[in-house]
Amino acid sequence: MSGGPAGAADVPVGYAQLWRADPGAWSTAGTAWRNLAGPVRQRADALTARIGALRPGWSGAASAAAQRRIGDLRTGLTDVLPALVEVDQVLAELGARLGAAKARLGAEVARAESGGLRVDRTGAVRPDPARVAQPGPAVVHALAGIRGALTLAGAADREAAGRLAELTTAAVRGWVSVPPAWRPGPGAGPAEVSRWWAGLSAAERRWLVGREPDRIGRLDGLPAAARDQANRLLLGDRREQLLVRRLALRHPLPAGPLEASRRVRLAAVEASLRGLDGLTERLAAGGAPRAYLLGLDPAGDGRAVVALGNPDRASSVLTYVPGMTSDLADAPAELGRAARVLQRCAALGPGEEAAAVLWLDYDAPDFLTEAAGTRQAEDAGPALHRFQEGLRAVHEGPPARQTVLGHSYGSLVVGAAARDHGLGADALVFVGSPGVGVDHAADLRMPAGQVWSSTAPDDVIRLARPPDELARRALLAGTPLGPALAVLDGHGERLWFGADPSAPGFGGRRFPSAQHGHTGYWDPDNPALDGMARIVLGR
Measured between alpha carbons, how far is 107 from 110 in angstroms, rounded to an integer? Predict the structure, then answer.
């Protein structure tokens, strides 16, 4: 393709193809493949019912042979399920990467045209005759950016084609079982788990996903794609567990404390069911970013770990830890907060691949009496440390910029994990924090200048002063020392769990928030949302 007069440049032929590309169509195709899982499961369940019907009235060698045959057919069907999810993953990731490449292409074309060039839809580049000034250095960078977008799209296309071809070959040849002894030990860290997984063949990995989804779905150090496949296979079982609990709690008891307790527990189970259904709806949604189910446990209040975008592929990854009262019932709303940061990242950095993870894998406090202590935050530390180490261990390509964000009590979870165990992160962010368990940013074992905090002017968390200070304020209120104390409180640097991370003396970096209260940091018109996104992108 001709680049035009001297000073212009040729653009690769793929330009027109990328400009016309419809990234969403690939995601839609992936969803169609994933939706085949429902009919396949129904057919497999029908075969299970057929085996059950044979057993009471038919015995002997022929019966055993028939049951084995039907069992083999059922296994053949269920072995297809992970492959259907994998096709969805491949096509969704292709769509997302093409979308990122197309966004970058559009931004770079706009920059080139603002610098004095015309780029037509075939990719030909020529000086704009209406512009007197000659194209400057910025235009050269724009043209390089255009080529970079085409390179990204080409790499995505080749990789997707290769993965689908490999999956097709593997499906024809069949999966390969893994002997029971070939498993990482119970104390294996994410790096060891990652090495174990890398030593398996593709056929062995797919066998493990299909036959041992409970193990694979919760192992830090495994790729997000494998964990997502395994956990999606378990979604029906997880919902069934909640339904069984609800059924057991539906029988009223005589009036009294036991009946009151039953009602509370029944309401909690029903809330968990609504939360699980909300997550399931998001997991089933097409379009970008694709959701990856990295963990799900309906026990107790329920836990969930969900990524938007593939964290193994992204150049910037956010791990968001919510605070008090967060549980499975709240997971869809909390995931929405992570999504808003990701949307702002896309607006600030067109073409950059980013992912956001909701990490709700701890027992968040339900009551103020629990939230007044550090136990639940400290108990969560090892799991958050392992998860971040796992993200590092499995990431593809150059290391991603990893950011861990804690809100409210979640900021104490993040601070305690960093203090006691270290976090595989490049930046820590605290919003609406009651203190993070340390008196200075240096105690969090992070690179200099990479601890950030924001507290809204009207956030009630500012009133979470240490108990001794609250007693002193109450004692001196109405005395001549009261006004002086009020002035000092305005500059106070102590909160319930230690130094205020938003105070100048903490040693961190602050970013602004408007008056949006304790939960408004993700509101679209709050500058705090921009601040979080810029930190995630490293800007």
Answer: 5
